[in-house]
Design goal:
Layout (H helix, E strand, L loop, with lengths): L2 H11 L20 E3 L18 E7 L6 H15 L4 E8 L4 H13 L4 E4 L8 H9 L4 E4 L10 E5 L1 H16 L2 E8 L5 H14 L3 E9 L4 H14 L5 E4 L2 H13 L7 E4 L2 H10 L3 E4 L5 H13 L7 E4 L6 H7 L16 H8 L3
Parallel strand pairs: 2-3, 2-4, 4-5, 5-6, 6-12, 7-8, 7-9, 10-11
Antiparallel strand pairs: 1-12
Helix pairs in contact: 2-10, 3-4, 5-6, 7-8, 9-11
Length: about 350
């Protein structure tokens, strides 16, 4: 097993030291870098959802095959469920970006009388009514990878999307000295993560002379983003920097500039092995916002904690700092494909099974 994987596992086991707690909520190691929200953060009553094992846990994904990151989230969640012998069945349902399908999926899980439900919402409103039905039926609901407009869920673990976008935006503001034109590559239109990451960028640009020369949705996918970047380049290649909402899109744009033999402008990235390899090899200016696919495992741990009868906070935030090139070099794996994301909790055997280079 690699040194990096050992370090990740050790940090997960010790992650309780990163949690701010009060006299009511208990320390639960959900994910390294996660903290309790400081204000307006009620506590889920201790013992409210306590239930004897064995347990069946369901999960409604907004789209398992949205990109390589969402595929790994599913792997991470499944691995965490497999590692807890009290979970006898883990049911993962894929909404495929369809709001109606997500509603039907959650109601199907309720009908199956699962013990807890994890939800990654398609949109900020798509799952609201179904979540309310689940909680009314006595089923705790854990939310992650997208905020919703309802407070009906039991607890949430949210990567701070504005924070994520602002880490990238602040990098570009610094590199460009507060002036210049940028391209903006957004994710899936209508998804709360896309909207809120973009809001983080806008916070960074306030008071600067940086202008958004072009703005397109690449859906967090390599192939679509490559077509977008090719079109933008052929229209006007003179861009000072690129804000990319996801690493698969970053990789695509880097490849476009290399394809045309042009210098790569400062461009934001994310914890993707393929992007890490590009950055190390080509030495362009970048930053990597952290958004671990192990949020899938964290959702499982939160559901288990509730079923154990532990008192959790309603809101947990995941706002880690960006990674520089030196940290990236410690995680990059040349023996694995471009499709693995860091940091991960998958075992060395699982990493090789899913992501070994063919």
């Amino acid at each position: 097993m690699s040194t990096i994987i050992r370090k990740i596992r050790a940090s997960v086991l010790l992650a309780g030291v990163f949690f701010a707690t009060n006299s009511f909520a208990q320390e639960v190691p959900l994910l390294e870098g996660v903290t309790t929200r400081a204000e307006n953060n009620p506590t889920v009553e201790e013992g409210k959802y306590k239930k004897d094992a064995p347990w069946v846990i369901g999960m409604s994904s907004f789209g398992v095959n949205a990109n390589t990151w969402t595929v790994q989230v599913a792997h991470e969640a499944q691995a965490a469920a497999d590692n807890d012998k009290r979970i006898t069945k883990f049911i993962l349902l894929d909404a495929g970006f369809d709001q109606k399908k997500q509603v039907a999926d959650i109601e199907d899980l309720i009908a199956q009388k699962v013990d807890a439900i994890i939800v990654q919402p398609v949109t900020s409103t798509s799952a609201n009514a179904s979540i309310e039905k689940a909680v009314a039926a006595g089923i705790p609901v854990v939310l992650h990878t997208g905020r919703i407009e309802s407070e009906a869920y039991t607890t949430e673990i949210q990567g701070g999307a504005e924070h994520f976008g602002k880490v990238m935006g602040d990098f570009l503001v610094k590199e460009l000295g507060g002036k210049g034109n940028i391209w903006v590559l957004r994710g899936l239109a209508g998804h709360p993560e896309d909207t809120n990451r973009y809001n983080g960028l806008k916070q960074s640009l306030e008071g600067t002379e940086i202008k958004i020369a072009a703005e397109e949705h690449g859906d967090w996918q390599y192939d679509k983003a490559k077509k977008v970047c090719e079109t933008l380049y052929l229209s006007d290649p003179n861009v000072d920097g690129i804000w990319s909402s996801g690493a698969d899109m970053t990789r695509a744009c880097v490849d476009v500039f290399k394809q045309f033999g042009s210098p790569i402008p400062p461009i934001s990235g994310e914890g993707n092995n393929g992007f890490f390899g590009q950055w190390i090899a080509d030495g362009f200016k970048s930053i990597s916002s952290e958004y671990s696919p192990a949020q899938g495992a964290a959702g499982i741990r939160a559901a288990v904690a509730l079923l154990e009868g532990k008192a959790l906070h309603k809101h947990y935030d995941y706002n880690p700092p960006g990674w520089d090139l030196e940290k990236v070099k410690k995680y990059y794996r040349d023996d694995l494909s471009a499709n693995v994301w860091w940091p991960s909790e998958l075992s060395e055997e699982q990493l090789k099974e899913f992501y070994a280079k063919q």
